[in-house]
Amino acid sequence: MASIKKRKSTFSVIYWYLDNAGERKQKWDTLETKKEAKQRKAFVEYYQEKYGYVIVPLEEQFARQIDESKKKLDSTDEDITLCDFLKIFVNLYGTSKWSPSTFSSKVGTIENYINPLIGDWKLNEITTKKLSAYYNDLLSVPEVPRANRKATGRCVQPANIKKIHDIIRCALNQAIRWEYLDTNKRNPASLATLPKVPKVKRKVWSVDTFREAIQQSDDDLLTICMHLAFSCSMRIGEITGLTWEDVIIDEQSIATNNARVIINKELSRVNAQAMQKLKEKDIIKIFPTQKPHCTTRLVLKTPKTETSNRTVWLPKTVAELLVQYQKDQKELQEFLGDAYNNYNLVISFGKWKSR
Fold this sequence. Notes:
By secondary structure, the protein is an alpha+beta fold. Helix content is 45%, strand content 14%. A 3-stranded antiparallel β-sheet has the order 1-2-3, covered by helices on one side. Strands 4-5-9 form a 3-stranded antiparallel β-sheet, with no helix packed on it. The protein has a 3-stranded antiparallel β-sheet with strand order 6-8-7. Strand 1 and strand 2 form a beta hairpin. It is flat. The two termini are 25 Å apart. 24% of the residues are buried.
């Protein structure tokens, strides 16, 4: 919400926004009259409700941006390159369809493996044969190391080539829908040949392995995490994003075998710029950062799919472990007082301190 403050003969509209580092900042816009201030306040609130906590442009500037976007969308360029089209694709399709993590991952893939190698291809000259050759050539392209990771020396793997192909196929589908390509022609990526992805059987712990691991664990918090993962089939982000209001472990629920957890969010680390670009879509809470120039932020976010929202019933032993751990956590909170940052997280330790 924005507010209006009178300053001598002028009026200021005050609102908050998040900068590129995800830090909360205050902005003052000065207007000559109260009427202008009210109009500006209404526009600020409308804009931030639609686009998130960003700096709000002037109404005239916003109108020009809309007109320019419409002109760009309406004018299809026969000589447009794949690189130029992917910028349009990301800004129109990616910002509306992708989560912050997905946005960051796909943009990285485009910048590392698509634009440097085939970005200068003319969009209307892309063929199934050219794409098939490109996918085969990727097998000899060194992998780009992830941020703060050392190079592995490996080349691009077939599974990653499949992800690259998925981006290109989706982009070309949109190019046909937006009439950058002939709407009567087939997507050239739809029949492209990809390297075979080897099937890898996922290793799953047996009950005996789990029991042995529990016996070896001397950390109560780790033990709880292992129980939630094994007996409740919860992913790591779901476990670390679990909050106490979604854990039903009162005496009656445990006695009637109705103890349960409601899974409706997950803890994740996302790129700050991607989060800003997507206007904090799917973000429930942004945790304070310990480093002022950190490019990522720890957040609570909604799950990727609707089916991930679910209720899982707890075995009695796990429910009782959670009851005891909640008591221990409350005692620690009372002991530390204001020094304890309480964010109601079940899994709270180390630098997070129940944020």
